[in-house]
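Consider the tokenized backbone below.
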């Protein structure tokens, strides 16, 4: 009988995702040396070897890990080759669709374009580019560019991405993670609006067409419900925290929330989806409970809530943090029907596997890294921190506040090395700001959802707008008061790894000391 290897035996998917990540990293390191076919041959060979050795648990298990490693390297190689299939460095005439919300940067308008047709090239599949369009000062045609608009343009596409920054943020990695194949500069006279033909629209996949429709619908929701009814800063903040529309956020707002240690409220994540899931579950459980037997209520409610949660994720643009949260909530809902453990590191690892298989370049996305590391850190550190203060002797409200502090500290332990590495800053007041911001954020999101659901009731909408205006004012005042920290902190990748190693060693030492002396405490 094979002896299990401790606690890690209970999180098998963690080992799978680690081998997948190592494979992706090796594929990146050897991208110019090893062709994708070599990884594929290795993968097939390992799978054949697995079937031969499947009666030997230890050997077959190690073969599975090696196959996962080869699979990760192969996936990276395929995605890298796909990103390089783009006509570059030559003048190109093409038809494209605006596929995000354009933003003004100085003299240019920046947006993503989905190229659906090109002239004089063999490129047949639509691909995404990042465009900088020179704004004309006479006709202001650039103001007509909104999501879904189709243009005919001529420019030179480039894939030698250059982005000057003092931080470790890589513009090239960011482009790859968002599946953008090239950048281009379009002069104001080199584009015009057009109407795509049926053949050109047919080139778009069902998924791409759905994304464009949802993007347009999101903009209509914002304009019909909130546009012009709040000041610009509050409207931009509300659109960001509820529908993931961050194009209107000013740099001043972003910096203030970063310095206060609450930038996570600007990115749709587990906090937002958890609030939405809880609200929908309570509502539909009550509503369905009026018509169906009690034993079927939970199943029927979850059958409605989970598609609604995923619909919300699609509506807000499928950010990596929201996808991670949606996968975990979906698993939570399924296993809750089976009365099993609802949340674990296994569920987090499953979400990572799904996302990395879909797009291995997400491994270098800052949002992806922060999202998964923060949740993993909460899994590891939340319980020890929460129970450290003997919370059972406290009242309900102090226990709730201590729970918020424990979550904030646990998440910060995991992400602060990455925050310093990428953003070169650290917030001192993240505990206090989160204790205030998170409850306000919960009320704000509930109110915003009510205003969206009942937009056809003017009196209720006005009441919701007044409440949201007050909550946004309190949020901004809190952020302004707690915007303090240290800037210009610089560490390299090796130092980040050493910090995580130190955190791990301190955690293991603390556990050892606790279990060594805990019997004495109760004698």
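A designed sequence for it:
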């Amino acid at each position: 009988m094979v002896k299990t290897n401790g606690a890690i035996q209970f999180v098998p998917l963690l080992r799978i995702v680690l081998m997948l990540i190592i494979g992706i990293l090796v594929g990146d390191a050897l991208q110019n040396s090893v062709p994708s076919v070599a990884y594929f041959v290795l993968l097939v060979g390992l799978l054949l070897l697995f079937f031969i050795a499947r009666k030997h648990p230890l050997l077959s298990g190690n073969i599975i890990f090696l196959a996962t490693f080869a699979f990760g390297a192969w996936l990276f190689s395929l995605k890298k080759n796909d990103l390089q299939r783009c006509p570059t460095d030559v003048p190109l005439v093409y038809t494209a669709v605006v596929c995000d919300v354009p933003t003004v940067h100085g003299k240019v308008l920046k947006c993503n374009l989905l190229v659906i047709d090109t002239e004089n090239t063999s490129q047949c599949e639509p691909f995404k580019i990042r465009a900088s369009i020179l704004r004309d000062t006479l006709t202001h045609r650039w103001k007509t560019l909104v999501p879904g608009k189709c243009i005919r343009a001529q420019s030179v596409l480039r894939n030698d991405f250059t982005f000057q920054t003092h931080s470790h943020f890589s513009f090239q990695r960011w482009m790859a993670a968002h599946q953008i194949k090239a950048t281009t500069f379009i002069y104001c006279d080199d584009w015009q609006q057009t109407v795509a033909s049926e053949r050109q629209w047919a080139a778009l996949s069902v998924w791409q067409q759905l994304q464009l429709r949802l993007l347009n619908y999101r903009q209509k929701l914002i304009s019909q419900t909130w546009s012009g009814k709040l000041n610009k800063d509050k409207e931009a903040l509300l659109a960001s925290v509820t529908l993931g529309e961050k194009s209107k956020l000013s740099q001043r707002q972003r910096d203030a929330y970063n310095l206060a240690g609450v930038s996570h409220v600007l990115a749709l994540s587990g906090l937002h989806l958890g609030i939405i899931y809880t609200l929908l579950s309570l509502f539909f459980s009550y509503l369905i409970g009026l018509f169906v037997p009690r034993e079927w209520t939970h199943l029927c409610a979850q059958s409605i809530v989970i598609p609604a949660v995923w619909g919300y994720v699609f509506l807000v643009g499928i950010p990596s943090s929201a996808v991670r949260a949606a996968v975990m909530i979906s698993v939570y809902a399924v296993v809750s029907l089976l009365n099993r453990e609802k949340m674990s590191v296994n569920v987090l690892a499953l979400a990572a596997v799904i996302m990395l298989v879909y797009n291995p370049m997400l491994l270098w996305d800052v949002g992806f890294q922060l999202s998964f590391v923060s949740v993993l850190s909460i899994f590891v550190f939340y319980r020890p921190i929460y129970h450290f203060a003997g919370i059972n002797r406290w009242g309900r409200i102090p226990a709730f506040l201590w729970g918020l502090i424990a979550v904030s500290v646990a998440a910060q332990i995991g992400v602060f090395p990455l925050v310093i590495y990428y953003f070169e800053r650290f917030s001192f007041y993240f505990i206090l700001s989160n204790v205030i911001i998170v409850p306000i954020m919960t009320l704000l999101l509930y109110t915003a959802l009510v205003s969206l659901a009942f937009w056809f009731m003017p009196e209720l909408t006005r009441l919701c707008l007044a409440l949201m205006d007050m909550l946004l004012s309190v949020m901004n005042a809190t952020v302004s008061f707690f915007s303090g920290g240290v800037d210009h902190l610089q560490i390299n990748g090796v130092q980040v790894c050493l910090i995580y190693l130190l955190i791990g060693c301190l955690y293991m030492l603390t556990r050892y000391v606790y279990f060594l002396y805990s019997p004495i405490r109760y004698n």
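The chain is about 60% helix and 10% strand.
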